[in-house]
Amino acid sequence: MSKDVYELLDRIGNLLRAEVRQLGSSYGLHPVHIEILSYLSRCNQFSDTPAALKEFLGITKGTLSQSITLLETKGMLVKQKDVQDKRVSHLSLTESGRDLIEQLTPPDRYLGPLSKLEQTSPDSVTLLKQMLAEMQIQNETLTFGVCHTCRHHQVVSETKFYCRLTELELDRKFGELICREHENTR
Ligand code: SF4
Fold first, then answer.
1. What is the third-level CATH fold of 1-120?
2. Confidence class for position 135, pLDDT limits 50, 70, 90
3. Closest Cα to residue 145, out of 133, 128, 135, 134?
4. Among 122, 136, 155, 156, which residue carries the largest CB count within 10 Å?
5. Beta-bridge partners for 150
């Protein structure tokens, strides 16, 4: 049975990656460039550094550096020094980078089947999230999970939450972003 699940997820992943690869190539982008744009469209302010990107994507420093330069040249992202620590840079999408990633992911061609699964079986999304969390625990990697599922996330009001790790009060809307420091509730 687990072999069936594995093969299904593998085939779905291959189809999605192939489509994104093809769409990206029409903009002169490789899959890694799309992954960088996608990550930056979803991460919070503790996770928008080249070091976090390298950990998330598992790529070499050289590939990352070349990719960032290319995306900067294409006007899709900007790099800015941290105001307190000049050794650290933060990356953010430009409007055209954000527009492009919204257009490419998820690919239009597969919006129908993806939405159908979500609408007809909302539990499937929860189950997939649980499976991902369990696999990350097995793999002992950083989870890069969505903030509101983190054990440090504490809701304080309708508009704010408190991050017990960074000891900062942040807007609830940031709770939908992924974070390098995320820790699953065990
Ligand atoms: S609550 Fe967790 S995921 Fe959210 S900002 Fe803090 S450490 Fe990151």
1. Arc Repressor Mutant, subunit A (1.10.10)
2. confident
3. 133
4. 136
5. 184
Q: Work out the end-to-end distance of the chain between its first and last CA atoms, rounded to an integer number of angstroms.
A: 26
Nearest to 164 by CA among 152, 178, 176: 152
Q: Whose CA is nearest to atom 1 of ligand 1?
A: 153
> Which atom of ligand 1 lies closest to the CA of 150?
2
Question: What confidence score (pLDDT) does residue 1 get?
Answer: 67
* CB 50 within 8 Å of CB 89: yes
Select from 150, 183, 186 the residue to mutate for testing ligand 1; criterion: most ligand atoms less than 8 Å from CB: 150
- Angle 97-78-83 from CA coordinates, rounded to 5°: 140
What is the reported pLDDT for 186?
Answer: 61
Ligand 1 atom nearest to CA at 166? 6
163, 174, 178: residue to mutate for ligand 1 pocket, most atoms within 8 A of CB:
163
pLDDT of residue 125: 87
Q: Which atom of ligand 1 is nearest to the CA of 148?
A: 4
What are the pLDDT digits (tens) for 13-70? 999 999 999 999 999 999 999 999 999 999 999 999 999 999 999 999 999 999 999 9
Domain with CATH 1.10.10.10 in the chain: 1-120
